[in-house]
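Title: Prediction job returns without error message
Component: structure pipeline
Severity: low
Priority: P3
Assignee: unassigned

Description:
Job completed but the reporter wants confirmation the result is attached to the right record. Sequence as submitted:
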Amino acid sequence: MKKPLVLLSAAGLLAMSACSNDGAAGFNGDIQQIPSTDEIQILNQDESDAMARMEDFSSVLFNTAAEHYQEVFTDADGNMLMSPLSAAMALAMKANICDDATAGKIARLVGYDNIDAVNSAYSKIIPNLCLKNSGATMSIANSVWYNSDFSINPEFASDINKNYYGEVTGLDFSAIEAKDIIRSWCALKTGNLINDMAPNVNRETLVLLANAFYFSANWDSAFDKSLTVDRDFAGTKKTVSVPMMHKDMRECLNYSETDRARIVTLPFQGAHTMTLVLPKDGISSDELSRGISFSALKEEATPVFANLHIDLPRFTATADIDLMTVLSHLGIPQFSMLSNMGIERISQTEILHKTSISTDENGIEMGAATVVKEDNILPGPQEHPDPEEINITFDRPFIFFITDHNSGLTLMAGRICNL
């Protein structure tokens, strides 16, 4: 008999019940794909305001990761790379399965008033990010794997598919191939840029939520490859020679300054830009990273009409982040009750975040994956496997003790060597 997973809140992501319900079943409807359209879905005022606040979350997440750099990044070589989009979307899905107090903290952190607003906004944001006429290649994928010892409520799967265009699949987390299934999914959904995501799942894993995205775009005006030459890059550890690309942008408004940084905005074909921020003399990149506000930077910087001559290194970077540690510094608890999952059981959260980016004279390619793993830390009722046949014979010296379980006291203890 399988244990049921049931939906207790209208917008719940995953919920589990300790009650038995043989009638529960998986989602048998058609999987709703992200609309392939040129039309932007209009956000209402609340959703628009939330989008502005989400940009604040992006800055706060980046600032906090920089402040706790050594604690957060697996390979602390000084580089930072993270996707606030992927992190926020995975976190929004997590908010659906937590107790109300934790869900409220998550919703407010990512810029929303409540979980219903989160789900409503993402049902529009995801298609808007993947518009056909955006000028870029952009794909977003969300997935939920639930412990296959449980059945799934069809309403849950329908809601996840409707709001996050997500897949919902049962998985035996104790199976050897479970990690490979998750790793392969992340690789497929990121154009093989994230091909080593393998969270440590086991039979105590209740649910695993994942977001992945892939993005590639060409510069609006390509760098001339014949102008790329090797030049020194003065890193924080040492100076190295790197391929340095060059571009001349005449009579443009792509350069601006603040009192702390020089800023260049490079457009891609379509609706995307890359903003490059160079700290001014006397200000370190670490110091700037801890206090930078992406939205304030856009507002404070005054564009300068100029002939811009830019030299930019061709680079590739990857990063692994312990995202749960970052979020714990922002007030999100690692332990939460799974009240909205239908059981009063405590879950321990692990959030892995991997990113990859590559730039060259033609453009950019990048991918990210965020995996949220919820493990059961208080064992509940379990189905027992068939008993093993065990024979034991006390035909040599042995020790014994007798315990009173009302008091916990040992009443007698001894060792029998000879009879």
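Comment from assignee: result matches the submitted record. The longest helix spans residues 45-67.
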